[in-house]
Task: inverse folding
């Protein structure tokens, strides 16, 4: 009976990360070549179809895809997808580029704008479907935090508020997880402790600038220039460095 049991365990769906596809979660700041190259590789190379979602940013003229870091890195097929109108976000015409894309990138800004525009719409559903078919979703700063199930710093009035009723739900690509960014650069190392104290079921992940976690299933690898912090209790946290791996289900380093 041992072999069938082992086979069943190997096929069991991840409990935290996506069953298929990959997440690249960046703590903000400058994107180093290692992060950019990994995203493009996972997207399918420079010929991949990539959607950029800049909705977290301030209101301004529509973003020009040619000004993006992906265009400068040689990605040819780029589509900018942006609306603040939930009816538009819930339309088949709007989500059509997501249905043919192999990758999505969320830019920085304020994560509540992403939640207000896309939660519960066809756009959010299409993002999950992209992962299901093996695509990659990446994002930096606000585009990192929105990937967790619990949304920190979601208050419309300011990003110093860690828990804001009405703005506490992310897209849930990582289930049971709260993600913070700009960790060391902005002196935020202790900020997630209050979230874990109130919500002890959550796993907190804090990511410094120019640093990312690359998530496949229930495991991630740290890449980039700095550190990632893990918050599994309301009193302490543990740092991970580039090259280290972490099991999200077991909540421990992978040796």
Result:
């Amino acid at each position: 009976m041992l072999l069938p049991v082992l086979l069943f365990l190997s096929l069991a769906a991840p409990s935290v990360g996506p069953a298929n596809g990959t997440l690249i979660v960046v703590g903000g700041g400058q994107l180093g070549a290692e992060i950019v190259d990994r995203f493009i590789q996972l997207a399918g190379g420079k010929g991949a179809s990539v959607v950029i979602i800049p909705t977290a940013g301030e209101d301004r003229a529509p973003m020009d895809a040619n000004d993006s870091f992906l265009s400068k890195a040689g990605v040819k097929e780029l589509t900018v997808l942006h609306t603040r109108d939930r009816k538009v976000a819930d339309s088949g015409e709007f989500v059509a580029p997501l249905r043919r894309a192999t990758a999505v990138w969320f830019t920085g800004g304020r994560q509540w704008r992403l939640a207000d525009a896309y939660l519960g719409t066809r756009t959010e559903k299409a993002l999950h479907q992209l992962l299901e078919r093996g695509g990659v979703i990446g994002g930096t700063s606000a585009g990192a935090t929105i990937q967790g199930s619990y949304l920190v710093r979601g208050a419309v009035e300011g990003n110093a508020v860690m828990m804001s009723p009405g703005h506490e739900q992310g897209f849930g690509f990582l289930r049971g997880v709260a993600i913070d960014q700009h960790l060391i650069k902005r002196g935020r190392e202790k900020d997630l402790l209050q979230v874990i104290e109130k919500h002890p079921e959550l796993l907190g992940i804090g990511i410094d600038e120019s640093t990312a976690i690359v998530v496949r299933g229930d495991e991630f690898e740290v890449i980039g220039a700095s550190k990632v912090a893990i918050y599994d209790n309301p009193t302490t946290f543990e740092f991970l460095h580039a090259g280290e791996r972490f099991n999200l289900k077991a909540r421990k380093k992978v040796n």
Residues 33-43 form the longest helix (11 residues). The radius of gyration is 17 Å. Residues 5-10 have pLDDT under 50 and may be disordered.
